[in-house]
Amino acid sequence: MGAAPRAAFEITFDGRPVPALSGQSVAAALWAAGILAWRTTRVGGRPRGAFCGIGQCHDCLATVNGRPNRRACLVPARPGDAVTTQEGHGRAGLDT
Amino acid sequence: MATVERTASTSPDVIVVGAGVVGAACAYYAARAGLDVTVVDRGPVAGGTTGAGEGNLLVSDKEPGPELELALLSTRLWRSLAELLPPRIEYEAKGGLVVASEPGAMAALRDFARRQAHAGVTAREVPGERLRELEPHLAPGLAGGFHYPQDAQVQPALAAAHLLRAGGDRVRLRLGEEVTGVLTGAGGRIRGVRTRAGELHAPYLVNAAGTWGGDLARLAGVALPVLPRRGFVLVTEALPRVVRRKVYAADYVADVASDSAALRTSAVVEGTPAGPVLIGASRERVGFDRSLSVAALHRLAAQAVRLFPVLATVRAVRAYAGFRPYLPDHLPAIGADPRVPGLLHACGHEGAGIGLAPATGLLVAALLTGGELPLDTAPFRPDRFGAHSACGKEANHGA
Amino acid sequence: MPDSTPEAEGPGPWCTTDGPTPDTHGPGPAPAPPAEPCDLAVIGAGPAGLAGAVAASGLGLSVTLLDGADRPGGQFHRHPDPALGAARPGALHHDWSVFTGLYHRLTSSAVTRLTGHHVWTVVRDGDLWAVHAVTGPDGDGDGDGDGDRDGDSDDGAGDGGRPVCVRARAVLFATGSHERHLPFPGWTLPGVVAAGGAQAMLKSGLVLPGRRVVVAGSGPLLLAVASALAAAGARVPVVVEASAYRAYARVPRALLAAPHKLVEGAAHGAALLRHRVPLRTRSAVTRAHGTDRVEAVTVSRLDRHWRPVPGTGRRIACDALAVGHGLVPQVELALGLGCATRRTPDGTYALVLDGVQATTVPGVFAAGETGGVGGAQLAYTEGELAGVAAAAHLLGRSALVRTARVRELGRRRARLRAFADAMARAHAPGPGWTRWLDDGTDVCRCEEVTAGRVREAVADYGARDARTVKLLTRAGMGWCQGRVCGTAVACLAEAAPGPRQPPSPERRPLAAPVPLGVLAALDTEETGTRDPDPDPDPDPDPDPDDHPSHDTAIATATATADITATTATATADTPAEDSATATDAQACSPPDEQ
């Protein structure tokens, strides 16, 4: 590509390696890998990914390093980040 | 079903002003008793305090006395309404859990529960070490608590909307229509109301205008010192069932009866079928000021996190303010107003309107039809404040 | 797979070598704000906020500039992290040199910059304003800057962001706008993205949502998005615009007054021509097809009320759709302080501002999109005006706002506002768009509430406004708090029978999600009081455009620009008052959120 990135590294999405560039958001790294959906909705279980791109719509919520509901379009990718498909509210572990 | 905008070919038997949960309950029980009812509201259904409430149907927070009697009756009525209305109203007989952080507060709770038991409230003591069997995410180290199985919850706006619909053809809705005058005839008797859309005639008028009940009373020429008490509710992101019951700290009890105008918050923490946890019940007397109180939100959040540490990383996505209508003695006004024949009041329920609505509606319907009263309404007499009330001038004028 | 990586068939716009990227990287851990109150808190570091902060600082005010992002520029000058090595990010931006100039003035000024600060409320605090923010890239973590992202922390305030309170004698809201959306069946499919979202991801991350991207909706942003996508290597089979660009011809005076806008429009037009991107006006994407991602869209003709014309649907294959219907001013923070609003010509709500950007609340100023969507040029102009006005207010030197420079800024503002109003009028949604919806379409993306349920709440359960619809259906109660579905829900609520009440601006007491641990960690005793809520402007009648539908090549847009430029040459400056009164707002607009 046209840019001359200073640093490239890997993150993982559901365990598989995804290249990322320093300064890219998690969402941008996923898009660059052709991944458009990284969560399923709470009610219908439908796939979702980035929509508004500026942190407003919250459609891009992802579980990053085990922490749910991170806005992937805002959170910068960092080496070794583990992004996992978030199911629903992403907090099933809290269910009583 | 309740039909919006049907031209009334015949006048209704009764006009209910206010399409909140209390107005809806009055309309429902009046219709069930055979009366034709028109509900008038300047806004939509549940546009006022009802839409800003958490939906608490509580007996646990009430001292023995007239309000508790009303609450116990309502608890029974809500149970049967829950059979009748669709599940969408999110009625949950989930019970309440009142906790005490230290032994002194626990002793006070124990005394309170004992007195409530004489009035018909079921309360079961839960020692500190057993609390987490009921609420697994509760903070460790609490002194103990009381479980109140009669406490329940409902989604207030849906409950109001479905109550109105359950009234059937006898209930008509006129929404977006503000009442600008009360019409009286010979002997000062109620003849109807004037709205921005024209006159509407009926021999009876029920004031279920909630926080604005004092304004409607004034239009009818009488004083009813309804005042607003601001409450904030914090709403979290959707969660699984983290909190099973209505959980709150013991100082809530003292707070409800408090005459202090200072902020005294105790967080009632509860899950909802839709997912979010509600944290509510800050109480301030600041008039109709809707501006956000960061101090109130801070206290709500701090108390919720103290009760449920797991909530610390959970995000609040919304906060809303509502105005709880209260009268000087913290009891609602329910019943006929002797100063204006045909005028009945059903307002001033403070933060308990959702819970007290069915009993209020049942009482109003009984008063309208001459039916048997299920409890003594004397403590709720609307003219009990006399001329020395907050609206003293108007009271003299109306008398 | 790399369908999202801009291809270098011919150099991409960012790979030329002229024009350096300012090193706008955030400073890592956010610095602690000064404990002493500052003179002016500026919220938002886009064009308006930058200009305001620089102007106020230049006049001697102590200024704190807060923004959620870690780099200044806002959405308009959203740009790649310098680490991405984009050699010429300005190629994706107009006014890049204005931005870099201001940015250099900012860095050499005494302005305190708080990046990664998401402001969630502003309240009165005695004689001051308390600006409350939560730190972190998304307001939920890394606020301590220690890189702890293992998610195992349960101490709330530490890993979950940090509360910050800035106290200031005056506030400048430069909070910009967000995109407006009109739902249609299939719009929740992956690959359907906001038009501004596609642009934002391209600007900051240099990525595309697909290789073959249909651009649709309404408003001038679409052309910019389409040309940026095409320049980045995407194939754009069509730009679908719901209104008729010839509506612009009805406002020649305003158009003339803003030649800069015409140049910008012409540049996009030329770029699209070069990439052979056709423009279909009076048309809309009325359905997106696909199972796990979008595979095609149906484009239908619209009548003058934006109702789809039966039988005109045409299927167009694509692997992404970028869609949006203009912008909505973000005014919730100002609304919380009781600032009055006005209804703009396209039915959104903007703040009421005087000639020097003061809101109706003394000591509170606003600039840029918060006063009505109008673009970066207007934002720069208003930002500078607001900075000067705040200085005049705080220093008690009214002469500051009587200079020739301020008069010139005022004239420029009037011209640009008039142009913005003309554009808003031309692209205002027609009431018939709700015909695109079938009852199964999710209107609220967060809570998955369908159009059918919203209609039921209105028809059967006494909902008459978006707030009641929300209470009865949960539409607008989710993470985004109705920012995405607000317009749609308000439009559906307008189907309520009986006396019509004008919709109100959307209230959001929390302007951003805040971890409970952060709220619990606040150290505050102020209660916050203010004047009662303002009344919104009355709701005027819609003014549907009656031009017929047309399939048009992109050449039309540029031609329109030329024509209007010519016809308008004889006209003088547009009076300032034109911008302050909106008389033909459309029926559909956002509701009260309470």
Automatic annotation (TrEMBL), chain B:
Keyword field: Oxidoreductase
CC per GO annotation: cytoplasm
Domain named FAD dependent oxidoreductase: residues: 13-367
Cell inner membrane keyword on record: no
KW 4Fe-4S (keyword) present: no
Coiled-coil stretches noted in the UniProt entry, renumbered to this chain: none
GO MF: oxidoreductase activity
Domain of life: Bacteria
Protein name, entry field: Oxidoreductase
Organism, as annotated: Streptomyces longispororuber
UniProtKB/TrEMBL annotation, chain C:
Stretches of the chain forming a coiled coil according to its record: none
GO molecular function, one term: oxidoreductase activity
Keyword Secreted: no
Keyword field: Oxidoreductase
SUPFAM superfamilies per record: FAD/NAD(P)-binding domain
Biased composition (Low complexity): 17-27, 551-585
Keyword Oxidoreductase among record annotations: yes
Biased composition regions of type Acidic residues, renumbered to the chain: 139-157, 534-544
Domain FAD/NAD(P)-binding: 39-383
Sequence ranges assigned to domain BFD-like [2Fe-2S]-binding in this UniProt record: 443-490
Stretch list, region Disordered: 1-35, 134-162, 525-594
Listed name of the protein: Oxidase
Organism: Streptomyces longispororuber
